[in-house]
Amino acid sequence: xxxxxxxxxxxxxxxxxxxxxxxxxxxxxxxxxxxxxxxxxxxxxxxxxxxxxxxxxxxxxxxxxxxxxxxxxxxxxxxxxxxxxxxxxxxxxxxxxxxxxxxxxxxxxxxxxxxxxxxxxxxxxxxxxxxxxxxxxxxxxxxxxxxxxxxxxxxxxxxxxxxxxxxxxxxxxxxxxxxxxxxxxxxxxxxxxxxxxxxxxxxxxxx
Length: 207
Fold this sequence. Notes:
Helix content: 25-40%
Distance between the termini: 32 Å
Number of strands: 9
Radius of gyration: 16 Å
Number of domains: 1
Order of helices and strands: EHEHEHEHHEHEHEEE
Strand order of the largest sheet: 3-2-4-5-1-8-9
Shape: globular
Largest sheet: 7 strands, mixed
CATH class: Alpha Beta
CATH superfamily: Class I glutamine amidotransferase (GATase) domain
């Protein structure tokens, strides 16, 4: 397993993925937003880090994504946004099975924010962080369950602090909660074996 889960900073990527690597970039978690600027910024940062980035809209390009995954892709990168919408979309398109197979084949998966949260067992604890109404057809909060942690990204930001404290108090007896700051990342080599690594907020000015 090669699972790199981020909050915001991409500073750890050069240590896990060499320059000129081919990255398949999934922007769809940003679909519910009028201006998903944070998705566009991640794309630009990946390019500035020296990666060959190919964007895949899994909502509208269902017939091509299997072929794209066979074209010498070195890593899948799923950007942030609404995690409930993201879970619904990858399940309804079957892309969740593609992700699972990709990870089981020991290929690098990179998830930022929502792209990290979906790796856990359930979205139940994060109902107050994102709007579940953006995915009205989502039948269950059961997520990919590829790791045993429920990740809370962007930890330490004032606007999330009260919500995060409430989540930890309510759900820590049911789920293993892991907070993740914007300059941190988690690197998993197995579902229960991970390290916390530094992931600086590089290239965040002038984009």
